[in-house]
Design goal:
- This protein is α/β, with parallel strands linked by helices and 531 residues long.
- The protein has 2 domains: 177 residues, Rossmann fold; 259 residues, tm_1862 like domain (pyruvate-formate lyase- activating enzyme, Alpha-Beta Horseshoe).
- It is built from 16 helices and 17 strands.
- Helix 8 runs parallel beside helix 9.
- The chain is globular, with a radius of gyration of 24 Å.
- The N and C termini lie far apart (58 Å).
């Protein structure tokens, strides 16, 4: 059992939470803390049992847009179990102090349903704020302060230091907001040492060389401030001026930490390990990016066999920043060692202007052409359906341009594959896009619960949006996953209209776009006249 438990519900088992490891690493006494990672598809009873078994004094839960609903279910079930224990006056697990944090709760309004389960809500980056809160709670308990299980006792005596400010009780009993300012990357501990041998053998490994983003796309929470960012009692203070841009971890220290992590990967690897950088725009600082890439390149050439399973490095890059020196670097990476996520989002300049995103379609296509013809990189490109001013026709035109540019460009050096992800716009809390909808500048209907997908806009009807969603699902099953390489659409030719019709027929045939047996899908494709 541990005094502090840090938990989250991961989208998949293979996605370990770097956030939990960062929080634990920066506690005053990390040995007091246990990490409990759960998965969306895991039975609820297993999730609750894992937490109850630890019987913590403090339970911290990281909440994201993807696990919001699952977290509410988890907390609701835990509350019932704790209440049964309390009512029976038994010696079973007692309710701990519950602390919620993470990107989702940072931007939610104060009356959000999830907050009824919380004693404290940390909005913003939690490494310092959570450590100081835990120290205060555990110190008060050690001093004999009243038990906080199920009560607000002790809250007023918390000594929350200069990094946070308590903004007052919410209208939900016993809950307090703590508003954390951005941390200094130079002083926090990275947490990479907390990846387990199992993580290093079987899971994605997340690292971060920087935080924040130099861009301010309206749909992204990188362009948002935590709820109530004016600095009033309604929410956290505005970011200090020195944090207005990208915050970078000290390069020498970061590379040393990465070296230690990769050596552990080599010892534990049973196959290719993906090292995924969480930097939102990795190539925004070219000189720094080149130094990190040079280091990563050296790890793809391991003459001493230090990485027997192989390493693949995953970066998110913006197509607007691809100078010659970056291109020369990327060309040097061998096959299967580099994966690049390139956000296109829209090829329509008017739409990009409305969401505060730079647009140069010809340059973006040229960058994609270079990556496909001159490098071995696996390229993952994104388009978003539902953006302001983007209608069915313009989205289809953009998709055809992207498909033609990626599939029609293939050079002798290219060994990598590519993926196109047609995503659906999400109207995330705190974003400028959400404010645009609330003011009527952008007319859109969207789900009120996470993940806040847009259902229709003034440019895209619900029927068309539903068709695009179905298209995206079958595109993922058939083209991105490539289960039948011989049954792919023709390279370099328009595909949107034909695949849209195919996806409609497949939905009508199967009655669903999920859980389709592979051989039945093959048979349906072989009898179609589309490929």
């Amino acid at each position: 059992m541990a005094a502090i438990v840090l938990a989250t519900v991961n989208a998949k088992w293979i996605h370990p939470s770097l956030a939990l490891r960062l929080l634990k690493a920066n506690l005053e006494d990390p040995d007091q803390c246990a990490i409990v990672e759960l998965a969306l598809r895991q039975p609820l009873a297993e999730k609750t049992a894992a937490i109850l078994a630890e019987s913590p004094r403090i339970l911290g839960i990281s909440v994201s847009v993807w696990n919001h609903g699952a977290t509410v279910d988890l907390l609701g079930e835990l509350e019932q179990l704790w209440r049964i224990t309390a009512d029976a006056r038994s010696f079973g697990p007692r309710r701990p102090v519950i602390v919620l944090g993470g990107p989702e709760v940072t931007y939610l309004p104060k009356d959000a349903d999830i907050f009824r389960f919380a004693d404290f809500v940390i909005r913003g980056e939690g490494e310092t704020a959570f450590a100081e809160l835990c120290r205060s709670i555990l110190r008060d308990k050690a001093a004999g302060c009243p038990d906080m299980n199920g009560t607000a006792a002790g809250h007023d005596s918390l000594n929350v230091y200069s990094q946070v400010k308590i903004s007052g009780k919410m209208n939900v009993p016993h809950s307090t907001f703590i508003d954390a300012v951005p941390v200094d990357p130079a002083v926090i501990k990275p947490g990479y040492s907390l990846y387990t041998a199992e993580d290093l053998q079987y899971k994605l490994i997340y690292v971060e060389a920087s935080r924040d983003c130099p861009f301010a796309c309206a749909f992204c929470q990188s362009a948002a401030e935590p709820a109530g960012f004016t600095g009033t009692s309604e929410g956290p203070p505005a970011r200090p001026a020195e944090h207005a841009g990208v915050r970078e971890f000290p390069l020498e220290k970061f590379l040393a930490d990465l070296e230690t992590l990769l050596r552990r990967c080599g010892k534990n690897s049973r196959g290719p390990r993906t090292i995924k950088f969480l930097d939102r725009s990795f190539n925004s600082n070219i000189s720094r990016a080149l130094q990190i890439l040079e280091y990563c390149l050296s790890k793809t050439r391991s003459p001493d066999g230090a990485y027997p399973g192989g390493l693949q490095f995953h970066f998110e890059m913006v197509p607007a920043v691809f100078p010659e020196e970056l291109r020369k670097m990327l060309v040097r990476f061998p096959p299967e060692s580099l994966r690049l996520e390139i956000g296109i989002q829209s090829f329509k300049p008017e739409t990009c202007a409305r969401i505060n995103r730079a647009s140069n379609p010809e340059r973006e296509l040229e960058v994609l052409h270079f990556l496909r013809t001159e490098t071995n990189a696996v390229v993952h490109a994104d388009l978003i359906a539902g953006l302001p001013g983007e209608d069915y026709a313009s989205f289809g035109t953009g998709f055809d341009r992207l498909w033609s540019g990626l599939s029609g460009a293939r050079g002798p050096a290219a060994a990598g594959t590519f993926e196109i992800q047609p995503g659906i716009l999400k109207c995330l809390p705190g974003t400028p896009l959400r404010a645009m909808t609330e003011s009527g500048v952008f007319q859109a209907e969207y789900d009120s619960s996470a993940p806040y997908e847009v259902r229709a806009t003034d440019s895209l009807s619900k029927a068309d949006m539903d068709a695009v969603k179905n298209f995206a699902r079958f595109w993922e099953l058939i083209v991105n996953r490539r289960p039948f390489p011989e049954l792919l659409p023709a390279a370099g030719k328009p595909v949107f209209g034909r695949f849209m019709e195919l996806s409609r027929r497949l939905l009508a045939h199967f009655g669903r776009n999920w859980g389709i047996p592979k051989e039945e899908l093959r048979k349906a494709l072989e009898t179609s006249s589309f490929f």
